[in-house]
Amino acid sequence: MLRNWAISGGRNAPIFNAPLINSAVPDASAGSSTPTFTRSLATKSIVDFEGLYKTILSGEVGFNGARRVANLCVNSETLTAGAGWTVANATSVVGATDPNGGTTAYTFTCSNAGISELYRAVAGRASGSTSTTISIYLRRVSGTAQVSLYSKGTPVATNVTLTTSWQRFAVSGQLDNSTVAYIGVKVAQSTDVIEIWHPLLEDVTGQTNQNPSEYVSVGVLSSPYHGAMVDGVKYFSTLNGNTVSSNVVTEATGAAINSSTAKFASLGGAYLPLTTPSSSALTAITSDQSILVRVAPSDWTPVSETHMSCKWSGGATDGWEFYIDTSGGFTRLNYLSRGTNTIIAQRAAGSSLFSDGVGAWLLVTCDADNGAGGSDTKFWYAPNTGGNMPPSFPSGWTQLGATVTTAGVHVRGTTADVMAVGSRVASANGFFTGNVYLHNVYSSVYADGATPVSIMDPNTSTTGQTWVSSTTETWTVGVSTKARIFGNTNTTYGIPAPWDATGPVGYNAEPQAINLCLQSQTFDNASWVKPGARVVITADQYVAPDGTTTADKLATTAAGSNTYFTQQTLTTTAVANTFTVYAKYTNTQWLQLDLYDAVTDYVASFDILNGVVGLKHASATSSITSIGNGWYRCSVTATTAASAGAAVAVGLSDVNSATLRTWTPAGTETAAIWQAQLETGSVATSPITTTTVAVTRNADKLTYVTSGNLNSASGSCYCEFTTAEVATGFRGLLGADGNDNLPLGINSNHCNTYDGTTAVQSAGILTANTAAKAASFWTGSTLAVVQNGGTVATGAFDGSMAPATIAVGVYNGANQLNGSIRNVQIYAQPQSAAYWQARTT
Length: 841
Fold this sequence. Notes:
With 841 residues, this protein is mainly β. The protein contains 3 helices and 69 strands. The strands form 15 sheets. Strands 23, 25, 31, 32, 33, 34, 37, 38, 41 and 42 form a 10-stranded mixed sheet that branches. Strands 1, 2, 6, 45, 60, 65, 66, 67 and 69 form a 9-stranded antiparallel sheet that branches. β31 (360-367) and β32 form a beta hairpin. It is globular. It starts with a helix and ends with a helix.
């Protein structure tokens, strides 16, 4: 480890450097680099780079903002019957040359006694459906028999064509919660010989890019495994650059995850969510045209039109529309271009190319004069890629249906109408719900290298309501449209992402929490008491924040005036308690939550149309946080009385109110709801799923040895962090597990340091959920701390900063950060006050 330290810069380099953005293993350490991590019992959730809630394993270190890959295929490099694989009518022997030049591939020799098989089964999710991607490397040695890959339940086989060179193949599947996923290979009866290597089975539910990820081994390494402290899981700080064509994978490293590559427009389904005035270049498009988009609609088979591009306000002879609707149960693409010989073109996909919430490239090309007295319109599709670089055209694309030829040369009328992404312009309909990553307009028939005249790329957006694109249009996020740019910090027009310009925000450290609500994601269960026929819960109607279709529909009826439902006989203590429900607007603006301690109803109202808090009980606090796709995390907090007769309630309201409403609904009011959580504390923590009993998620505790990694007599440390709580006493940044020395931590809303004798507190004020930088140093008689470039606070150093262990996000064995932390660095030198003041700016 000393060699690593010397190589990384010697005396002025940190003796301990842990970026903590995708691995718990430090990049450099003068002492041991081996991390220790504990969090037993319940699983927990992290927020990945797309804002998707990912459930992680017990004992797994979680990293917010990174891309998580988990291989569900146990013993992925021991492909024999004794390792849990089924081998039928064949032998499977290790020792063949693998694609990396080693000898870890398996030779699979068919016995000609019947169909030859190598496969294993893996259970699907406990609830909801599971989207899977299966990939495996194959090479033919001899023979010509048909080879197939197993996927999803039963098992189901997909034919693939092998060559004598190594290729990686991929297939996808969709499972319900009663089936299992199969991964493996089938060969028709023969004496064929093939070679097999590195199977990967992924749960890709909710991901916009469902191409196979980088291979991650299972059953090969020991702790810390791939850096996440559990086997078969690896985090990446790059996008998935792999692509698939005809089941063959082309592997590539994606762009780094940051605010220049990973932003997108999250549209909640409203009028004019993203618009730009007509430019001279747009107005001049009167003949050939192409529109290219990368989108991930929440519903690929909508009951009505869903517009991706519209520049038409009602004129009979000008403008265009590009949208999807449904025909025969399949996605249909539509293009209307008005003018001389108006084009009305439609083509259904004809097969299940699309999955709700999963991204895809779509393209329409209009050759206004095909040279034969007409115009030609073509629709194209390509699978999602790991960035905004379109696939090679036409080789990477599939034309949907036949070319649509319209009689007569088409001349589009000029129009100064605004251009909208996400709705019609002429009327308040055609609303798009989902994510938009790119929208390009061309004044030509599309070809590789074509230059767009208009680009709407959220990666170029700023934190305000408007931004200027690289093609000089001014794009505007509509006021009160539920449109947000994921990755911008402005809470009105943006959704702060779990990454910034430098990458993922890092290791997620949370305290212990207990979700007291039973059946937290099944509101139709009898644990939730409904008031007769006045409230109806329909299970699994919407895509939830974790990508599964497990969000429920809350609906009123006209049978009475009580429109809320409850969970009763809960037990609260006389401390701050927080009740949280995730909600999404469907047609009713006001959601109400009630936290009741058998004495007081702590009610809060939430505007889930516009994403703002409403009225509340005077002794309660409330918060609403946009998490994308129209979803909001709604929480009410109150210091309750100790009670064994506490209850929580969820309901709809016709108005903004600080009390539970009694009103007469029309019987058509609805909202989407997901994941109820009642826990001790002043803020909500990550979702804890429950069924029949309350569930405890134990605290995260990540530690490293002190010896060699920290100089007790003289040194300094630095980190970057966010915290959800700023007024709750001591919290560890770089703390200790075993004593109370605190090289760097938080005390209420200040950073502080403590050597066991003297505590020093910074002058600055921390803000919850806002990125911060902090440092401390100790030497001679001086102990100091600084945050965010503020004044360096100093005190008397007792001569020894000696934490029993280096505990990241922990103080004195407990007192977790409840936030994210990255770029943990410890130096053998104190550095100067001016240096740390500048470094933390």
